[in-house]
Amino acid sequence: MQRVRRRLAAVMCADVAQYSKLMERDEDGTLDRLKAYRSVMSALTERHNGRIVNTWGDAVIIEFVSVMEAVQCAVDIQNELSNRNASIPDMTRMEFRIGINLGDIMVEGEDIYGDGVNVAARLQELAPKGGIMLSQSVYDQVKTKMALGFDPLGPQQVKNVSEPVETYSVRLGGRNEAETVQDASNGSGTADEVSGKAGHPQWDKDTQAVANGFEKARRWLRAQPRRIRSCVVMIGFFFFLNLVTSGLSTLWFVWPSLPFAAMLAWHVVVGRREKTPSGHTQRGE
Q1: Across 130-144, 146-160, 264-278, which has the greatest mean pLDDT?
Q2: Which of 74, 80, 127, 199 could bond to 97 as cystine, CB 3.0-4.6 Å?
Q3: What is the model's pTM?
Q4: Which of 48, 50, 46, 38 is nearest to 81 (CA)?
């Protein structure tokens, strides 16, 4: 019997978003694309000194000694797969969700176990399609060392983990507008360039706050399951119609929004519990 050892490691978990739907539409094509994309992931993993621990179905677990290598590998994977998806119709695109955690793991032979792995798997479930979700331990190691943007999404309660997990989304494709406004107000650009209103620092401050709030809300919504996003979108749609037709003098949007608000409340309380026996989220969320 092999002895169980412990060590600190960066663990990446990845799986394909809406894999079951892709298989239903085109089983042979989906399997061929999965093999091709896994080949890309394998090559990038080797380049960043990682080790593919396990694969089952559409999922992958990868172990890294370096946290920075793990994050950079994830970014390279998402960028490369995004380039490949650009020439593929939307309905057949294969997009991975990636979660990365730095934690203590148990090692038995070639397999790894423990909370370090469990948290990475839960982060992967929270990640949006084509996105990367980090734990606090990973973020603390890379936030000042990598030329990436990060969006804090706050603590998330996840299955089989007693304490809420602080989560951060990696901003792929460069810095957003909110950070540009922040840089300008700090002296790296002029207020005129950002707002067009020189001599109005309070206006710049308010604009920055609104931009930051909007961006955080957008990132939070993208990280939610599709059923939650759908409820929020429908409530927002009725509010928009209310605003256009009646202004805010009559708030009639509340009544058609009630069923969606009830579903939203239910999903928030009970959500993310539809798991497979292996702990994976049911496909199609």
Answers
A1: 130-144
A2: 127
A3: 0.61
A4: 38
160 and 33 inside one domain = yes
Last residue in a domain, options 130, 146, 171: 171
Same structural domain for residues 233 and 266?
Answer: yes
Does 165 fall in a domain? Answer: yes
Residues 210 and 252 in one domain: yes
Q: With a cut of 50, say whether residue 178 has pLDDT above it.
A: no
Asked if 127 and 32 sit in the same domain, the reply is yes
User: Is residue 58 scored above 80 in pLDDT?
Assistant: yes
Contact 206, 218 (CB under 8 A): no
Residue 221 domain boundaries = 177-270
Residue 28: which CATH number? 3.30.70.1230
Residue 280 resides in a domain? no
Find the mean pLDDT for residues 218-246.
77
The pLDDT of residue 251 is 79
**Does 146 share its domain with 223?**
no
Is residue 282 situated within a structural domain?
no
**Which residue from 77, 9, 18, 11 is spatially nearest to 44, judged by alpha carbons?**
77
Domain count, the chain: 2
Residue listed under structure tokens 């148990």: 106
Query: pLDDT by residue (tens digit) across 64-98?
Result: 999 999 999 999 999 999 999 998 888 889 999 99
Q: How far apart are CA 223 and CA 127, in angstroms?
A: 6
Q: Which residue has the higher pLDDT, 148 or 281?
A: 148
